[in-house]
Specification:
Pfam families: Glycos_transf_2. This protein has 294 residues and is of the alpha/beta class. It contains 10 helices and 10 strands.
Length: 294
């Protein structure tokens, strides 16, 4: 396969440099594209000044939002006739053997999309409750199973005819809220693409102290619930958002107490049902939670 690894970035130079160095150390055969979502080209110096064995291609997507940045990567991959496109985030690093596992799984599993795990690594200053509560721990699955929550933080995508013809792309209405990736993969699945999980293809995500705060987690929960309702509405189940949202709100604290008694501090993660439920109710009545606003 001819594979392009794409990184969408916005004013995160230290994280971008860390990721590019990890990609440069991977033995896989792939090219690297950096999509700078800053019209002021703030990522250019990181790309231009870094001493990389595998020189990244640098492009600018001036339209703000995660969806335009990802679509720019799609259009570049299509224009250069790549077979597959990989997305990783600029707050991550790849681990040894990552690309081999990801690309091999696409072939061995005859899959059009393969997702891998994202493992949290906490930076200095992250509170103990945030580490122990499991707020940043993502569920893992057996290799070959269908991913429950496909995302663009660690994924390889075959450039299918639907993508090449523009039938499927990242919807701009999710640009400032997130959720564009889940919508994208659900549309691919609807059109017949096969999605699979590869548990051996891991990346590490760095969690800084400012992100590990009650305020940030509340906003993230609101956004996740908000996007859930919008996806339910697109699928024709929008009517269920209110009862489900109310149920999550009602059960959040009892579940947190019960699981804390059974599992210790990790049980407090159940409190995320509260902002997620409120976010669902917000979207049911036309509201949006903006996470990627400028």
């Amino acid at each position: 396969m001819e594979v392009l690894v794409a990184v969408a970035t916005y004013r995160r130079p230290a994280g971008l440099l860390r990721l590019l160095k990890s990609l440069d150390g991977d033995a896989g055969r792939f090219d690297v594209l950096v999509v700078d979502n800053d019209a002021e080209r703030s990522a250019w110096s990181t790309v231009a000044d870094g001493e990389f064995r595998r020189r990244p291609v640098y492009v600018v997507e001036p339209e703000p939002g995660i969806a335009p940045a990802r679509n720019r990567a799609l259009s570049y991959a299509i224009s250069q006739d790549y077979t597959a496109l990989v997305f990783v985030d600029d707050d991550e690093v790849v681990v040894r053997g990552w690309f081999e596992a990801l690309s091999s799984a696409m072939i061995s599993l005859s899959a059009d999309v393969v997702c891998g795990p994202v493992i949290a690594a906490y930076e200095d200053g992250v509170a103990r409750w945030a580490r122990k509560g499991g707020f940043f721990e993502r569920p893992r699955q057996a290799t070959g199973t269908v991913p429950r929550w496909p995302a663009t933080n660690n994924v390889i995508i075959r450039i299918t005819d639907e993508i090449r013809l523009g039938t499927v792309s990242f919807r701009l209405q999710y640009s400032m809220t997130g959720g564009e990736d889940t919508d994208f993969f659900m549309e691919l699945k609807r059109l017949g693409s096969r999605l699979a999980w590869c548990d051996e293809a891991a990346v590490v995500e760095y969690v800084p102290a400012p992100r590990a705060s009650a305020r940030w987690l509340w906003r993230r929960g609101m956004r996740l619930g908000n996007v859930t309702t919008r996806r339910m509405s697109r699928a024709g189940f929008g009517w269920a958002a209110v009862p489900v949202g109310l149920l999550r709100v009602a059960l959040a604290i009892p579940l947190a107490v019960l699981k804390s008694l059974l599992r210790g501090s990790r049980g407090i993660g159940e409190l995320m049902h509260l902002p997620k439920g409120i976010g669902m109710l917000q979207a049911a009545f036309g509201g949006k939670t903006v996470e990627y606003g400028r």
